[in-house]
Design brief:
Elements lengths: L1 E7 L9 H4 L3 E3 L2 E3 L5 E3 L4 H15 L5 E6 L5 H17 L3 E4 L6 H12 L6 E4 L1 H10 L7 E2 L3 H8 L11 H4 L5 H10 L7 E3 L4 E5 L2 E6 L13 H14 L4 H19 L7 H6 L1 H7 L6 H7 L1
Helix pairs in contact: 2-9, 2-12, 3-4, 4-5, 6-8, 9-10
Amino acid sequence: MWCIAGTLPDADFALCPAGLDGQSTVGHGLLHLPDGQAVPVQRGTAALAATAILACGVLGVDPPRLLLAGDPGSGAGSRDIYAWLEQNLEHIAPSGLTFHYLFPDMDWHNRVLMAVQALAARPVMVADAGFMYVAKMSGYADAYDLFTPDLGELAFLADEKAPHPFYTRGFLLAREDDVRPLLQRALDHGNCPKNMIIKGSKDSIVLDGRIVETVDAPSVASMECIGGTGDLVTGLATAFLCAGAPMGESCMAAARMARLLARHCAPNPGTQIGELIEKLPEALDAARPEWPPSLCQAST
């Protein structure tokens, strides 16, 4: 089982372990959980989860299970997720974990990481958004397999003194477009894993600490205006990893597929991420040659 853990901006949405007991589905702009609850597919964890679920459906593999809680910023829902993972990871024994929007709490992060490290089989670990921030702040970023920062977040990872992206020092932000020195600085300080998708107008694929590929086509300008496109890329990478593709193939296919989806949908700046995700199955099916090579071979 692959598990996606993250929060929703809804104070009334209680911790929902039911998303781990059965498969969630996506339809009519909603993420449907096994206990009957439905969540709008907007940016954030819901967009990431919906992307991964729909992609896994096309790839023919069981989709990730979900551990969600509402947290509009107080940290309470995030702590519920941290506590649940600390107490129950051993029982679900996930093959992979994707952590997304969680309130950065170093103590709870370290307790969850210790629970992961105590598992008999180490899961593949992906982190984005708030959980990526706390993983860096903890000093254990290199315990992860994949981060998916955008350029601003890369500057934060490169700043060994910044406790949060808000405090990233200006001289680093000024070099935001200079990916290679920022990457090297983040690596030198142990603030990132060796594999990353650095999202931007050009997506840089980092494997074993080196940029091995830059994905910049097709380029759809309106995607820069649409919130949640980064969640889309992380969701696709999660789906390809969940299907068993190697890290490099998964990262390159995720960056490429998000762009092909944009071309397929021809969005305008007012398009919502949920409208794009709805079209993912047909776009992914039409782009089979762009799938990770190992998955293409398996499907023939």
